């Protein structure tokens, strides 16, 4: 017997599904709004959630990741009377089990439920990937968690991985982390900068060449593909590869065989492929600027990394991590960081994403030298001036905030905002110090008794 939740604003549909699931021996509950559905799924251990797209207070597609992130991680089956290819793609990419258009056949629905429950049962019986060794991957936000879970699954297999996202979101770091957690970790992690690969140099660069095959080729040269034998070949910015090179790469991926320039016999290489892109390969493929069959081969596991502005809850953790890293790099004592400096870091939009944050912390540490605390004055001037200018803009006073349950004209209580910020700050500092209260007091600049009082207030361990 399974526990099933139906989230649909049509009471008749809910009643029909409850009866259908009852005939199969399953317990069912239903919710008529997205908010009610989320409350139920957070408090109940559901196995399957039937989710409508058009809800009175939400788009069901936007709720999939939140539902999947709950402790029971139920399988989500989208049911909609307004089905579309784009909606189906979004649902599957968000982790939905399937996407069904209304009206649906009883047999089809029963089959989907049966398959989903069988999958959950088998998933519980097989060994799961181990804990991911982060290798500098920082973040605990709900937006980054699915990416970490996919990285763990990718490390547990040998299937190709395609990592997408804006520049600076950490695609290379994710690729290296997958490699270091995989069974190939003892072998080479070979990076191919696709922007530098032209059709003219492709053969020698990736396949290598034999002595004397051309003027100046005095010695044998091992290509990047052979260097990646038993290891990982990371194709950075794969969208930049010329089409003829893409076709050659596809053949090598399929056969694992190639012929170096000047050689008379084939060589083999057992490599695993991880690729990254900042561009939409589906769109490029539709315009015939990217090989569609290569795209199909690359889509074993797809990981889309969110921009830093979408994971603001992780900015402080990342800033503290890079602060420590650069203090060690420059062989200086660990530094604290002022609340005003943290305010600027969390308010800034970071168009360059994590790479820009790392560079900003590098500059700040170098600027502070041996001073024990980072202040806003140590940050790059362009970040400080942008935030100051924004605060002086005429419309800055009309900034909108998320609404509380009772609408106060787009403004929550100031005390609520301050308490939330303080709790997040203390959480980050405690995490940074490994729960060392003495060090947390030093960094935050508050007394031990005051620290205890705040920990008790916010129920922090």
Topology:
Layout: E1 3-7, H1 11-23, E2 27-31, H2 34-43, E3 48-52, E4 54-55, E5 58-59, H3 60-68, E6 75-80, H4 85-93, E7 98-101, H5 106-125, H6 145-155, E8 161-164, H7 171-180, E9 189-193, H8 199-207, E10 208-209, E11 221-222, H9 224-227, E12 232-236, H10 243-255, E13 257-258, E14 267-268, E15 272-277, H11 281-286, H12 292-298, E16 301-304, H13 315-329, E17 336-337, H14 339-347, H15 353-368, E18 373-374, H16 381-392, H17 414-432, H18 437-444, H19 448-457
Parallel strand pairs: 1-2, 1-3, 3-6, 6-7, 8-15, 8-16, 9-12, 12-15, 17-18
Antiparallel strand pairs: 4-5, 10-11, 13-14
Name a few traits of the molecule:
461 residues; alpha/beta; Rossmann fold; Helicase, Ruva Protein, domain 3; five-stranded parallel sheet; 19 helices
Q: Could you name the CATH topology of the largest domain?
A: Rossmann fold
Residues in β-strands, percent: 5-15%
Rounded Rg: 26 Å
What is the approximate shape? flat
Strand order of the largest sheet: 2-1-3-6-7
User: How many strands appear in the DSSP assignment?
Assistant: 18
**Which regions contain 5 or more consecutive residues with pLDDT less than 50?**
396-408
Count of structural domains: 4
Separation, N- and C-terminal Cα atoms: 38 Å
Structural class: alpha/beta
Percent helix: 40-55%
State the helix count: 19
Largest sheet: 5 strands, parallel
Describe the structure.
This protein is α/β, with parallel strands linked by helices and 461 residues long. The two termini are 38 Å apart. The chain has helices at residues 11-23, 34-43, 60-68, 85-93, 106-125, 145-155, 171-180, 199-207, 224-227, 243-255, 281-286, 292-298, 315-329, 339-347, 353-368, 381-392, 414-432, 437-444, 448-457; strands at 3-7, 27-31, 48-52, 54-55, 58-59, 75-80, 98-101, 161-164, 189-193, 208-209, 221-222, 232-236, 257-258, 267-268, 272-277, 301-304, 336-337, 373-374. Residues 396-408 have low confidence and may be disordered. The chain folds into four domains: 3-125, 3-Layer(aba) Sandwich (Rossmann fold); 145-304, Rossmann fold (3-Layer(aba) Sandwich); 308-390, Helicase, Ruva Protein, domain 3, CATH 1.10.8; 411-461, Arc Repressor Mutant, subunit A (Orthogonal Bundle), CATH 1.10.10.60. It is built from 19 helices and 18 strands. Helix 6 (145-155) crosses helix 7 and helix 17 (414-432) packs across helix 18.
